[in-house]
Amino acid sequence: MNPEHNTNPEQQSPSTASEAEAHLTPGPETMKLLTVDLERISDVEARFRLFEGIISHGAPFAAFLRLPVVAAEEPSVIERFNHSYAGSWPSLERFLHDQLESLGWHEILDALRRDHGIGPDVLDWNFDGFLVQAREVFDIIELDGWHHVFAK
């Protein structure tokens, strides 16, 4: 699976550019969790890193802090975020569709259907099974209606 997802608004169509920016804005759930993090962290440098991560990366960074293997206090937390963040999607279905697209599997399935005369409703993806496979490769955190995805 390819953990690439373009979240650069300048490289997207206008309809997806606003969507790409929307996932960055911390919503109420994100703000509540960040408040708890700030109250828990007493180290000034760690608090500064938390602010830096939120200012630079928004809600996806807050979602990253929800992973059990991540500690907001660790000095490399922003570097680890940058290394593992794959993107944010408004739904799991959209994430899975984009992953299938990036792997070229949609084209392969379309060619198989066309070459063998298989109708469009006869052969399709098992998204539940694909999600199980995706969760082996990615951590997915849902926060404020967005699915933030991180490579394991």
Describe this structure in words.
- With 152 residues, this protein is mainly alpha-helical.
- It has one domain.
- It is built from eight helices and three strands; from the N terminus they run αααααβαααββ.
- Strands 1-3-2 form a three-stranded antiparallel sheet.
- A hairpin with a 2-residue loop joins β2 and β3.
Taking pLDDT < 50 over at least 5 consecutive residues as the criterion, the unreliable ranges are 1-15
Largest sheet: 3 strands, antiparallel
Proportion of beta-strand residues: 5-15%
What average pLDDT do the residues reach?
84
- Percent in helix: 55-70%
Structural class: mainly alpha
The gyration radius over C-alpha positions equals 18 Å
How many individual domains?
1
> What strand order characterises the main sheet?
1-3-2
Number of helices: 8
> What's the total count of β strands?
3
**Overall form:** elongated
- Ends apart, CA distance between termini: 12 Å
Instruction: Encode the helix/strand succession as letters.
Output: HHHHHEHHHEE
